[in-house]
Amino acid sequence: MPTRISVFASGTGSNTRAILEFFQFNYDVEVSLIVTNRPDAGVIQVAEEWKVPYAIIGKSDLSDEELVLAVLEEYQVDVIILAGWLLLIPGYLVKEFKGRMLNIHPALLPKFGGKGMWGSYVHKAVHEANERESGITIHLVNEHYDEGAIWAQHKVALESSDTPESIENKVRSLELKHYPQEIKNFIESL
Fold it and tell me: Containing H/E element for 34?
């Protein structure tokens, strides 16, 4: 039986699409559910294109342990993958999926992490700090933003001419290239 993953995403779904493409012919892993907290999120269109069931679990719903766990149980979710999910994961979910929940962050943690550090805010902070490199951090999820044990990091050199937008593009290409493979490695380690 395949490992069934749920992808949690709040945005356009570019990482979700890369994950679906990567695992489409891998019969050991199945994306059984996509969860978003925003009814207008682009990831819903990705779910519909790929014919993957999706659930909208808003911020207030996320505190309803019974509801959330029932949805994940219905789709027999084994592993949760955060791919641009912006809400703090509640303690009950961290406990239920301890060691089976992975997140990607668009910077080299522990720098440029924590509440409010997402998307363009991260790249702007990296640029303002005159960093010579940036990258992605893939880490396990705990009760705090961006503080779980680091699984993998991938780096990219930055030039003095880089802008927050060019940094974002460099980091995004790392995400799309490495996250699906790191998810596979993570699942195989379980």
Answer: strand 29-36
User: 123 an active-site residue?
Assistant: no
Please choose, from the candidates 42, 135, 133, the residue with its C-alpha nearest in 3D space to the C-alpha of residue 84. 42
The one-character DSSP state at 116 is T
Main-chain phi, psi angles of 103, to 5 degrees? -130, 155
pTM: 0.97
Active-site residue, selected from the candidate residues 105, 123, 139, 178: 105
- Sketch out the chain's domains with CATH numbers: 3-189 (3.40.50.170)
Handedness of CA 80, 81, 83, 89 (dihedral sign): positive
Whole-angstrom CA distances from 71 to 23, 90, 166, 171 are: 22, 15, 38, 32
d(CA 103, CA 171): 15
Evaluate the CA torsion angle 157, 10, 6, 30 in order and state its sign: negative
* 70-128 confidence digits (pLDDT tens): 999 999 999 999 999 999 999 999 999 999 999 999 999 999 999 999 999 999 999 99
* Per-residue pLDDT tens digits for 72-85: 999 999 999 999 99
